[in-house]
């Protein structure tokens, strides 16, 4: 069994894996184990015309304990993270949705936005759990926006993985602590 026991007042955890792998459930388990009041930061944008999307959002909502506070922030992730207290656990679900929400940003603006997030994550003072999708394990998307999304999310997850500990991969019904099993690559330069 994978255990989570914070060794200080600060914990930056990254959970990644494929769709429907249990990433969010593992993040929720870790948030409960933190013993702190939990803020659930949802990056999804509600679309009442998309019933399948609404069902997914409702599934997540029903799983969460009633005493958790939900924050909905599809764009200003860094500022929202910066505003939370060290006495809380902040669960961000998900980075992939956040990247998709900002896909229209030009490369220079995206570089600034993602760098601002990395700086805020390094300065965070409480428990912070980030959920991120793995999108690059399949074919290269045939359309430009798909490739842009995959590349931006992949690089962001790599950059966060370099500063997070632990980093979990959830796949095939298992949770793997990559910090214990793997060797880190050098921090990416871009």
Automatic annotation (TrEMBL):
EC class of the enzyme, as a word? transferase
Query: What keywords appear on the UniProt entry?
Result: ATP-binding, Cobalamin biosynthesis, GTP-binding, Kinase, Nucleotide-binding, Nucleotidyltransferase, Transferase
Q: Which residues form a coiled coil?
A: none
Under the heading InterPro entries, the entry gives: CobU/CobP, P-loop_NTPase
State the active site: 60 (gmp-histidine intermediate)
Biological process annotations from GO: cobalamin biosynthetic process
**Sequence positions that bind GTP:** 17-24, 42-44, 93
Per the UniProt record, which EC number(s) apply here? 2.7.1.156, 2.7.7.62
Q: What does this protein do?
A: Catalyzes ATP-dependent phosphorylation of adenosylcobinamide and addition of GMP to adenosylcobinamide phosphate.
What is the name of this protein? Adenosylcobinamide kinase
């Amino acid at each position: 069994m994978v255990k989570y026991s914070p060794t200080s007042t600060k914990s930056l955890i990254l959970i990644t894996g494929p769709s429907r792998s249990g990433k969010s459930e593992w993040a929720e388990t870790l948030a409960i184990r933190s013993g702190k009041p939990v803020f659930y930061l949802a990056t999804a944008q509600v679309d009442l015309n998309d019933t399948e999307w609404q069902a997914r959002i409702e599934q997540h909502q029903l799983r969460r304990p009633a005493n958790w506070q939900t924050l909905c922030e599809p764009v200003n992730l860094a500022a929202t993270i910066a505003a939370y207290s060290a006495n809380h656990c902040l669960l961000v679900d998900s980075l992939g949705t956040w990247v998709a929400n900002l896909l229209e940003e030009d490369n220079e603006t995206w570089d600034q936005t993602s760098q601002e997030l990395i700086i805020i994550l390094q300065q965070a003072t409480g428990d912070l759990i980030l959920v991120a999708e793995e999108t690059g394990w399949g074919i290269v998307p045939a359309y430009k926006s798909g490739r842009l999304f995959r590349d931006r999310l992949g690089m962001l997850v790599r950059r966060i993985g370099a500063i997070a500990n632990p980093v979990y991969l959830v796949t095939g019904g298992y949770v793997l602590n990559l910090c214990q099993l793997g060797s880190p690559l050098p921090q990416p330069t871009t």
